[in-house]
């Protein structure tokens, strides 16, 4: 009898823990919160670069933020969308060389 009671409690607790974990996971996924970057770095990609330079496409912070905003993974074209044409040309050449 006692064993049965314990089993019942264990089962209930287990389910409770499971639903709690599930809820936390959902909360984390749904309201994905990113730690804001330091003040002296770019607020978009959390990397130190000049305003006319592309964001760091390899920055995890940038990738996460972009993913949340646009629902897809950023490319280098996205990372340098804010740059002027001259800078874009230079960077495209630069990236070609690194491939
Ligand atoms: Zn940036």
Q: Your description of this structure?
A:
The protein is mainly α and 99 residues long. It has one domain. Helix content is 59%, strand content 0%. The protein is built from 4 helices and no strands. It has helices at 2-30, 60-70, 76-79, 85-98. It is rod-shaped. It starts with a helix and ends with a helix. The structure holds zinc ion. Zinc ion binds next to loops.
Summed up, the helix count is 4
Largest sheet: none
Q: Beta fraction of the residues?
A: under 5%
SSE class: mainly alpha
Q: What sort of overall outline do the alpha carbons produce when their principal axes are compared? A: rod-shaped
| Tally of separate domains | 1
Q: How many runs of DSSP E, i.e. beta strands? A: 0
Rg (C-alpha, Å)? 23 Å
Would you identify the regions where 5 or more consecutive residues have pLDDT less than 50? Answer: none
In short:
The chain has 99 residues and is mainly alpha-helical. The chain is 59% helix and 0% strand. The model has no long low-confidence stretch (mean pLDDT 83).
Chart the SSEs and their pairings.
Layout: H1 2-30, H2 60-70, H3 76-79, H4 85-98
Bound molecules: zinc ion (ZN).
Features:
single chain; 99 residues; mainly alpha; binds zinc ion
